[in-house]
Amino acid sequence: MTKRFHLGWFTNFTADEWNGAFANGGSPWDGKFYVEIAQALERACFDYLMFEDKLSVSEAYGGATQVYLKHALGMVPKHDPAPLAAVIGAATSRLGIVATMSTMAYPPFLLARLCTTIDHIAQGRFGWNIVTSAENAAAQNFGLDKLPPRELRYEMAHEYMDLVYKLFDSWGPDAVVMDRESGTYADFTKVHPVNFEGKYFKSRGPLNTVRAPQGRPALVQAGGSPSGRDFAAKHADSIIAVNSSVEEMKAFRDDVRARAEGHGRNPDDIKVLYLVAPVLGETEKEARDKLARMRSGPLFIEYSLALMSAITDIDFSKYELDKPLPGRLVTNGEQGSLDAFQQFGSGKTLRELVQSSAGAVAAIELVGTPDQVADKMGEAMEAVGGDGFLITTQTQSISRQVVNDVTDGLVPALQRRGLVRTEYSHKTLRENLRAF
Ligand SMILES: Cc1cc2nc3c(=O)[nH]c(=O)nc-3n(C[C@H](O)[C@H](O)[C@H](O)COP(=O)(O)O)c2cc1C
Q1: What region does 135 belong to: left with phi over 0, alpha with psi -120 to 50, or beta?
Q2: Rounded distance from Cα 371 to ligand 1 centre (Å)
């Protein structure tokens, strides 16, 4: 029997495509547009819809906010995904919903309480994408002068996790008794303070929320550095990854699975989903033409470089387009995405890098008919060993049309091959992730 794989969709609570041929208006702030997207993904039996998030208006490209605000590109305006996750949770019944929240921004108690609340509203389908934040501008919105170095961020995040696990468990599974006879709603002997005192965090507990349906939300993480991978291997139910070849995908998965074993975990409890941006057409030519039109658009290079600047704090406006980058670039931000983009040693010019990796999205190229792309995804998964794909779009813009191309074209093609599920087998996100 063919081994099935998992599907997630990657987006953010940003303006949907507003000025293209199939644009919907660009004001999705009441959440209804994203509810419709979620319903389409649920129809296609996706594991989860995830919302990336950032906590600043970037000035990374050209030292100004201009390019980001002018184009509303993926980065700003960006509304808070947590309340949106609650709205989507209430309007769906099977799809997992993942929101990004930063350990830099939320006090652990508040985060544990919020995750628990949303997991109840979503009836056990909420996931938290754990990030430590990666931009100085975000750090400056929270009273810091600059972003702490990566190693310190992860050290703090490990302690943060120790505390939130204790908070999630501060209500026993059977604490709520609702016993009419004794007039008891909750049994106080099953609700415990945590009295946590760490190097960075301190909290008394217990939470004042009823234990979450999943106990703790499903945990998603995207660590790319060695300490990031280690963090993900220790905590995540699903790891989202940016790689630029099948070989890299396999090496990444083998590495995090080995690390998970080192932490005493069953590596099969972690699903690695790889970021891809399929371009679909009724014919291969149609898909290739579509991609070529996108890439030759007047703003594609600016879009792609501004996006890469925002996640790396590197100003790509200062490099010459028709020369290779001056050397291997390093960042205190998203090094993995930067490495996938810069293809160090390839000798490509900056323009060629943008054209070949589609900006921030670097993975196997998926361009063609639904059947062609489905075959390619199946082959990649067979070579890598699992566990699925995190689907997004070339410039992170979103419209009903691009989602429908996937849910109504690509997914049925994958289903015909037995590569993805045709119905949900479980109710909670964690159980669906572990179903195969
Ligand atoms: C698919 C994907 C999604 C990510 N989403 C976010 C996000 O929403 N917010 C954020 O601050 N960082 C996000 N990141 C960055 C990661 O949290 C992480 O910082 C990055 O992958 C670099 O790994 P490292 O921290 O181990 O160097 C994302 C990364 C990837 C690959």
Answers
A1: beta
A2: 31
Rounded to two decimals, what is the model's pTM? 0.96
8 A C-beta contact, residue 131 and residue 100: yes
Name which residue sits closest to atom 16 of ligand 1, judged by CA: 222
> How confident is the model over 202-213, as pLDDT tens digits?
999 999 999 999
Question: Is residue 78 within 6 Å of ligand 1 at its C-beta?
Answer: no
Phi-psi region of 42 (alpha: psi -120 to 50; beta: other; left: phi over 0): alpha
Q: Is 72 left (phi over 0), alpha (psi -120 to 50) or beta?
A: left
Token reading at 238: 């699903």
Nearest CA among 112, 131, 122 for reference residue 12: 131
Ligand 1 lined by 275 (C-beta under 6 Å): yes
Q: DSSP letter string over 201-266?
A: -EE----SS--BTTBS-EEEE---SHHHHHHHHHH-SEEEE--SSHHHHHHHHHHHHHHHHHTT--
Residue with tokens 């045709």: 422
DSSP-derived letter for residue 272 is E
Q: What is the Cα gyration radius of the chain?
A: 21
- The total number of residues shown for the chain amounts to 436
**Which structure tokens are listed for 348?**
């490509």
Picking from 223, 57, 224, the residue whose alpha carbon sits closest to that of residue 135 is 57
Q: Which residue's entry shows tokens 């943008």?
A: 354
Residue 150 Cα: closest atom of ligand 1: 25
372-395, pLDDT tens digit by residue? 999 999 999 999 999 999 999 987
